[in-house]
Structure formats: structure tokens, C-alpha cells
Design goal:
Blueprint lengths: L12 H22 L14 H11 L8 H21 L3 H18 L6 H11 L10 H21 L28 H11 L7 H18 L8
Protein name: HPP family protein
Organism: Allosphingosinicella deserti
InterPro entries: HPP, TM_HPP
Length: 229
């Protein structure tokens, strides 16, 4: 049964239902608006990686990979890599591997790592038989337009969802966060992350806030301590 335990810490059913509504509105609005623009050749007006981007944008809007620049920049940069590889490498297996690997490198260098970007790099390579596959216009239309429209709907939706977007590490309204009694500094969080040697899909500032809130609850539980705001 442990396989069916929710993987995301802090996720509630209300958040999941909100994410479902956001994805419904976001993808529908993006598809409707994109369908009004001319799109290249055989490519659809909405590319499949936008579905994965919507999962991040509406289900985990606090993720560093779900912020506006990763969604837009990661999608465009990866599509650019994919088109270039499709033009230069005739072997599809080698092209697919290079496309995804170089997309990861480019997104990392430009601080816009976005998992669906790997799919954006694959699209033009898989469709190598289509003239539109090697057309650099594909990078902006439909990929760039799709990403911009999806982020725009996300910005509007999250004004009412209860989540900050673009994400800011702030406490819930009506609550304050105390300074940690043990003097944990952001630099200590950096050192801990470096020591663990793992990459976590959470911003350092969010980790710092989480530690402070957790310490507040620990102090509230201590004998003789009254509850803190």
C-alpha cells in the first residue's frame, strides 16, 4: 500500500481539485487562442508537452520548474535545440539522445530547467519527415505561443487559487514566522544541500521557511510554551 501514498508533501485533495480546474481552464484557453494563429505544416496548434507543463503549473505551482521563465524559456530553448539537431543529425536514435541531453544542458545554463522541455526537443526530431520539423518558425509557433498563453492563464488563475504565482516563499496569510532559535541561516541550508548531494524540486527559500515554521510548532509543543502566532 505504500506505493499508493501521495508522493507530494503537503498535497491535499482541495489542492488536487484546484489543479484539475486550473488545467481544464489553462489548456482549453491555450488551445482556443492558439487555434486562431497560423501554425506550421502538419504540426498541431497545441503541442503535447504543454499538457506536462500544465501539471507543473497547476498542481505544483511552487516548484522552481513551474515558474514563468522555466515554462517559456525551457520550452523555447528545447524546441530550438530539437530543430537544430533535426537539421544536422540524420540518424534518429542519435538525434533523439543528443536532442534531450543538449536541451537539459541549455536549460540548465539558462536557469530555465523544465521537464517538458525534453519533449519539446523530441518533437521536431520525431517529425523529421515534415518540412515544418526543421523550420525554426516552429520554435515560436506553436511552441513559444503555447508556452506564453499557458503561463498567462496560470498567472490569472493563481490570483484566485490561494497559491502565489510566480511563487514567493511567504507564510500563509494571518501567520507569522519566528526567527529560528538555533540560528539556522540560508547559508546553512546551502551547505546541507551540498552535503546531501541531491537535487530537490524545491527552492532554498522555501526550505528555509519550512524549517522556521516547523521550529515554531516544536517550540509550541515544548512544556511551558504558549502558542505562537
Amino acid at each position: 500500500m505504500r506505493l499508493f501514498v501521495p508522493l507530494l508533501a503537503g498535497a491535499r485533495w482541495s489542492d488536487r481539485l484546484t489543479a484539475c480546474l486550473g488545467a481544464l481552464l489553462g489548456i482549453a484557453a491555450t488551445a482556443a487562442a492558439s487555434s486562431l494563429a497560423p501554425h506550421p505544416g502538419s504540426f498541431p496548434f497545441l503541442v503535447a508537452p504543454m499538457g506536462a507543463s500544465a501539471v507543473l503549473l497547476f498542481a505544483v505551482p511552487s516548484s522552481p520548474m513551474a515558474q514563468p521563465w522555466p515554462i517559456v524559456g525551457g520550452s523555447i530553448v528545447s524546441a530550438l535545440v530539437g530543430v537544430t539537431i533535426a537539421r544536422l543529425i540524420p540518424d534518429p536514435q542519435l538525434a533523439l539522445g543528443l536532442g534531450v541531453s543538449l536541451a537539459i544542458l541549455a536549460m540548465s545554463a539558462l536557469r530555465c530547467l523544465h521537464p517538458p522541455g525534453g519533449a519539446c526537443a523530441i518533437l521536431p526530431i520525431l517529425a523529421g519527415g515534415s518540412p515544418a520539423a526543421t523550420d525554426y518558425g516552429f520554435v515560436l509557433l506553436p511552441v513559444g505561443l503555447n508556452a506564453l498563453l499557458l503561463v498567462a492563464t496560470g498567472l490569472l488563475f493563481h490570483r484566485f487559487s490561494g497559491h502565489s504565482y510566480p511563487h514567493r516563499p511567504v507564510p500563509v496569510a494571518g501567520h507569522t514566522v519566528i526567527a529560528t532559535a538555533n540560528g539556522i541561516l540560508p547559508e546553512d541550508v546551502d551547505r546541507a544541500l551540498e552535503e546531501l548531494g541531491e537535487t530537490f524540486d524545491v527552492a532554498r527559500e522555501d526550505l528555509d521557511l519550512l524549517f522556521r515554521v516547523a521550529e515554531k510548532h516544536a517550540l509550541d509543543r515544548a512544556p511551558g510554551s504558549g502558542p505562537r502566532a
